[in-house]
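DM from R.C. (forwarded with permission)

"hey, sorry to bug you on a friday — could you get me a structure for this? deadline for the figure draft is monday and I only need the backbone to look sensible"
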Amino acid sequence: MKRKQQRKTGAGRQRPSLEYYLNLKYPVLLVPEPEGGFTALIPDLPGCVSVGESPEEAFKNVEEARQLWLETAYEYGDEIPLPSSWRPHRGL
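My reply, with the result:
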């Protein structure tokens, strides 16, 4: 039976598990596109973007993209940012 290896981060600290990151709630930005459809992106995860014909489809697709982003970053030992406390900007 193989033991799961826990990864160490800088200064010998234990890295949280992949499940920890997968359970975090990241803010999603939903943008209606002029030609139709929607783009959903997670600003905290660079390049984590998806599209859909409806807001529901865009959210579903970006959720899959988020999981793949986190799994890949974790596998390669990349830094994974924690979710920001993003709030919509009301303008000046």
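R.C.: lifesaver. Residues 1-6 have pLDDT under 50 and may be disordered.
me: no worries. The longest strand covers residues 29-32.
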